[in-house]
Amino acid sequence: QVQLVESGGGLVQAGGSLRLSCAASRLTSASYAMAWFRQSPGKDRKFVAAISWNGGSTAYEDSVKGRFTISRDNAVNTVYLQMNSLKPEDTAVYYCAAFFRPWFSGSDYLRQTLYNYWGQGTQVTVSS
User: I need a labelling partner for 19 at 20 to 30 A (CA). Which of 8, 30, 67, 88 fits?
Assistant: First the structure.
């Protein structure tokens, strides 16, 4: 069974930075795309960013473009989300997810039902 374990969340002041990590274990191949989603209190879980199996393609939700960067290191089966210039509205539980294809068709990275595995989430709180 594949496991995804997120870490790096915490409390930060507005304008600060955090780097989230998602370590994947028991994977037999690195040919999978990864993504980050987030869920704020009382709201649906939403897409944040996605990255292809080799890092060659990425996608971002509009509100995080220019502030967040998704990356991966396949040597250690880990995907990262560098979050800069954080805002109170970034407060959420952040989840990583794995899609067992190299990349998506069109904007299918938005479709949560396509993902094969999910992590348990890590809390990010941004104070004003």
Answer: 30
